[in-house]
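Protocol step 4 of 5: obtain the predicted structure for the target chain.
Materials: sequence only (see below). No template structures provided, no constraints applied. The aim of this step is simply to have a reference model before the mutagenesis design in step 5. Sequence pasted as it appears in the construct record:
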Amino acid sequence: MSSALSDVLRLPSAKVALPELMRRVHPDDVAGIATLVENTWRTGSPATAELRVVDADGAVHELIISCRTATGHRSLPAARLWGVAQDVTPIREKLRTTLQIQVNWHAVRRTIDAFHRAVLPSTLPVIAGVGLATVYLPAPERLDVGAAWYDAQPVAGGRLLLSAGKVAGHDRHPVAVMGHALAVSHAYAHDDPDPAGVLTRLNRFLTDTCQDDTFITAVVALFDPETGQLRVANGGHPAPLVVSRDGDGGASARSVTATGPALGVLADVVFPQSDLYLAAGSAFCVYTDGLIDRHNDPMAGGRRRLLQVAEQVFGRLGQDQPGRPAAAEFLADNIVRDMLGGAAPDDDVCLAVLHVGTDD
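Step 4 output (structure tokens):
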């Protein structure tokens, strides 16, 4: 063999007896290399194979072997064979390392996604005269997903408590914090569903128990289908919006802008509330900033565009063919689709839509 190959295999000489060389080949590769040589010898056709060879120090090398006849003519019998060996051990090691990293990444991501799905509501409450629909889209290339949530639960008096929020911080994984936040929020809402009260108590819980940089933004809304009254409280979260028919029969979207500070930062804060009336046929939307923020286009004016998209989608209600989805589902699906424009989200996207009135 060449001195270069001899050096690769750390052999004392470039002249090696065939039995000695084959003894160093991995047992699983012996039959393959023998078949390759036999076929090339018989047919004159060049061939390539991979095999593992142990060098004189016991290290395994992965080689690509190219075998061909010395004459190079298939029509002539081979007088001898010659071959070229390329040591691809570093390339294969790098590939295996990359594949293992990918396997580990996907395993972690599956665990996070499964936990997040378990924390989010598996079903939405059914309340007469109210349509509910939600969308959750995680950012596909991130492991810090699971920070965003939506929630809907019936409370005393036939009312509905709707919320959306997001966890921020670096010291703990957001999906773990989200699980605690939703659990205590459910308990507070069961005791007293007043939106500002729920945020106040959740804020106190966070400031008392979190000793790191974790904080939460959230919006909580309480809707009474009997009266159409909607009470909204906001803790540092993107402003929810109301979409309804305007006087000309078109659609009008407006933000509910009253907001307080984020939760978990200051112990004693006041969260302002807005009292609204939702007329039949109108919709209320809460969402997370993944719906409006685009990293590749930070100047896109996400909130303003969301108002425009919501009006356009709302204006299409009733213009679809028979068998169209429920109004809330139609609004949620189409708002997300039009906002993302077919692109994957840069961050978790949560959207919850409450539509007042029947869906037929």
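Step 4 remarks: The domain at 121-356 is CATH 3.60.40.10 (Phosphatase 2c; domain 1). The two ends are 82 Å apart (CA to CA).
Proceed to step 5.
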